[in-house]
Amino acid sequence: MQFLIICFIYICSFTNICLSDGLIAPSELIIKDVIVGKKNKLSELTNRLFRVSSTDENSVDVRLYVEIPNSDEIKDGCEPLPNISWIEIEKTTFTLTSYGIGETEVYIRIPSNKKYRNKRYQLYIISETVPKGPGLVCGIALKTRIIFETIYKPKYRKLSK
Which pLDDT score, from 0 to 100, does residue 158 have? Predict the structure, then answer.
């Protein structure tokens, strides 16, 4: 049995999903070309919405929120997200039906300031089950690491002749 658990952990370490009893979410998203001074949409940058899936035959309530990583969780070359308000999750709660999928838009809005250009920022989106019913109920939470790289695209104006 211990061998099977070790094999499962080893195999999951090579995939790009987090899997826990009841939820599936991306383990890491790396996003390039986030424009400073603009409201960037995850769906435009990655061609997909943020997705959480249920692996349970019962319905499950899920809550999403943003968390800034601790200093020991930061990957090399990244900085922690300076301000949590830069990230907006459109729909923060879901009720996922049996084996259901919940999707939401995530907005990244970096203030228009030169000091935020050409940076790599890291944050987490936490997908957490909300315990139901009486008694001691244990919820689960998955961390999706998001790393994004900022660029600057100036607004050009047409010159009249």
Answer: 56
| Cα separation, 23 vs 41, whole angstroms | 24
DSSP string, 58-73: S-EEEEEEEEPPPGGG
Q: Count of residues for the chain? A: 161
The tokens of 56 are what? 């349970």
Would the pTM of this model clear 0.90, i.e. be above it?
A: no
Per-residue pLDDT tens over the stretch 61-73: 999 999 999 999 9
Mean of the per-residue pLDDT values for the chain? Answer: 83
**Could you give the angle at the alpha carbon of 142 between the alpha carbons of 117 and 14, nearest 5°?**
80
**CA pair distance 96, 56, nearest whole angstrom:** 9
Domains and CATH numbers, the chain: 22-151 (2.60.40.10)
Give the rounded distance of the alpha carbon of 76 from its chain centre: 19
d(CA 147, CA 119): 10
Instruction: Please name the residue that has the structure tokens 């100036």.
Output: 154
Check if the beta carbon of residue 93 is closer than 8 Å to that of residue 61: yes
62 in Cβ contact with 96 (< 8 Å): yes
Q: Quick one: tokens of 140? A: 């689960």
Percent pLDDT > 90 in the chain is: 61
